Amino acid sequence: MADSLARLGALAENPVVRTLATAFAEAGFDLAVVGGPVRDALLGRPTHDLDFTTNARPDDILRIVKPISTTQWDIGREFGTIGAKVPSPDGPSEQVEITTYRADAYDGVTRKPVVSFGDDIEGDLVRRDFTVNAMAFLVPQQKLVDPTGGVEDLLIGVLRTPTTPEVSFGDDPLRMLRAARFSAQLGFRIEERTLAAMSELRSTLSIVSPERIQSELIRLLQSDDPVRGIRVLVETGLVDEFLPEVSALRLEIDEHHHHKDVYEHSLTALEQAIALEHARHPDEPADAVLRLAVLLHDIGKPRTRKLEAGGVVSFHHHDVVGSRLARKRLQALRFDKESTDAVAKLIELHLRFFGYSEGAWTDSAVRRYVRDAGDQLERLHILTRADVTTRNKRKAGRLAAAYDDIETRIETLREQEEIDAIRPELDGNEVQRILGIAPGREVGEAYRFLLELRLDEGLIGPEAAEQRLRDWWAARG
């Protein structure tokens, strides 16, 4: 505990914190670092965004920060929040948010708060989501304010609401998803009554906008252990309110037909994909699109499962069906088009490699693999490798070696030709000149012929491509 308090003291020595603390004290107002930064400092985790709370009203906050900041924004003024970029003498400027003590009530229908400013820091803290986030560190006094037992919950690793979970989740149902996310992010268990309330109140998530749910889902997927949070969402039934395809992966096992547990396979694949992501791209941020694609890659299986004779179970075309289901679901959650297209493409292509393991592909097949994956090729590499969850070491080794081979062949072709941007060696204007035709359908057909030629045979040179085009044109009569 002494180490934790020392880390809080270091937080108070942050130059930006000192600057703000001095300015607010001179103006006669309280100021406290609040929420996540306090929690993370006590846990010894790195702190990123600085959030503050104060008894100053928004107009006063803006007046105080203007002389000591380079930029200010008041988009959250009606909720009591003023943002600013405060320069630091020891490093780059830091972006901060400062919010007036709140004593909100919620309308219970749209989840929009009826904003009411308060004068008491403890009243502000009690209205927050979890006790571990309901702590404040007054500066410059360096006094910890913890009215709900957040420190004790940090020590035992538990998530609990400051008030009754029914009241807290009734105020904002999104807090139930935040419980799953913080469980994954911090490795904490959720207190029993809080967990039970999440199951009982799951239907109230319907009043939360798809955009807010999407944002929370992304943050969960970007955590160090999203599988832990996903299990919470499935076990409480919360996932059925916005992503029912995940819980549907828990297929019933027929006593006469046996197949891999699709739900557990998907979670194992996600864990393996994260390990590969860290190994291949150690300095890059967590890839939420990749992780979402891995989680959803088999959601077409429940729709396509067929019990065959002899205890065989088939899932024909689950890649195509799953791609359509994912696209529809992500659109409903208001994911952007780029992310939606990427996830749908990865799911549709995730089985393509397994034909390679049956026997080496031609160069033409490898080119098509790269062409079809496009800018998702690296994610497809990770997804395909992570999809191998067999306990049969010989089979796993054979598949890994086969994928090593295909990646090596892709690199070899990259060195020989422009495999990542495959296009014909003659463009549309050259086609028109050579064949003496005007723009139209026939130019498109000729271009497609040349593209297939490029995929099949690689680079053959413009002169050879022109002769092959003339031969094709002549054969058409």
TrEMBL record:
<feature type="domain" description="HD/PDEase">
    <location>
        <begin position="258"/>
        <end position="401"/>
    </location>
</feature>
<dbReference type="Pfam" id="PF01743">
    <property type="entry name" value="PolyA_pol"/>
</dbReference>
<keyword id="KW-0692">RNA repair</keyword>
<dbReference type="InterPro" id="IPR014065">
    <property type="entry name" value="tRNA_adenylyltransferase"/>
</dbReference>
<keyword id="KW-0819">tRNA processing</keyword>
<dbReference type="GO" id="GO:0042245">
    <property type="term" value="P:RNA repair"/>
</dbReference>
<dbReference type="InterPro" id="IPR043519">
    <property type="entry name" value="NT_sf"/>
</dbReference>
<dbReference type="Pfam" id="PF01966">
    <property type="entry name" value="HD"/>
</dbReference>
<keyword id="KW-0808">Transferase</keyword>
<dbReference type="Pfam" id="PF12627">
    <property type="entry name" value="PolyA_pol_RNAbd"/>
</dbReference>
<dbReference type="GO" id="GO:0046872">
    <property type="term" value="F:metal ion binding"/>
</dbReference>
<dbReference type="GO" id="GO:1990817">
    <property type="term" value="F:poly(A) RNA polymerase activity"/>
</dbReference>
<dbReference type="InterPro" id="IPR032828">
    <property type="entry name" value="PolyA_RNA-bd"/>
</dbReference>
<dbReference type="InterPro" id="IPR006674">
    <property type="entry name" value="HD_domain"/>
</dbReference>
<dbReference type="InterPro" id="IPR050124">
    <property type="entry name" value="tRNA_CCA-adding_enzyme"/>
</dbReference>
<keyword id="KW-0460">Magnesium</keyword>
<keyword id="KW-0548">Nucleotidyltransferase</keyword>
<dbReference type="InterPro" id="IPR006675">
    <property type="entry name" value="HDIG_dom"/>
</dbReference>
<dbReference type="GO" id="GO:0003723">
    <property type="term" value="F:RNA binding"/>
</dbReference>
<keyword id="KW-0067">ATP-binding</keyword>
<dbReference type="InterPro" id="IPR003607">
    <property type="entry name" value="HD/PDEase_dom"/>
</dbReference>
<dbReference type="InterPro" id="IPR002646">
    <property type="entry name" value="PolA_pol_head_dom"/>
</dbReference>
<protein>
    <submittedName>
        <fullName>Poly(A) polymerase I</fullName>
        <ecNumber>2.7.7.19</ecNumber>
    </submittedName>
</protein>
<keyword id="KW-0479">Metal-binding</keyword>
<keyword id="KW-0694">RNA-binding</keyword>
<keyword id="KW-0547">Nucleotide-binding</keyword>
<dbReference type="GO" id="GO:0005524">
    <property type="term" value="F:ATP binding"/>
</dbReference>
<dbReference type="GO" id="GO:0008033">
    <property type="term" value="P:tRNA processing"/>
</dbReference>
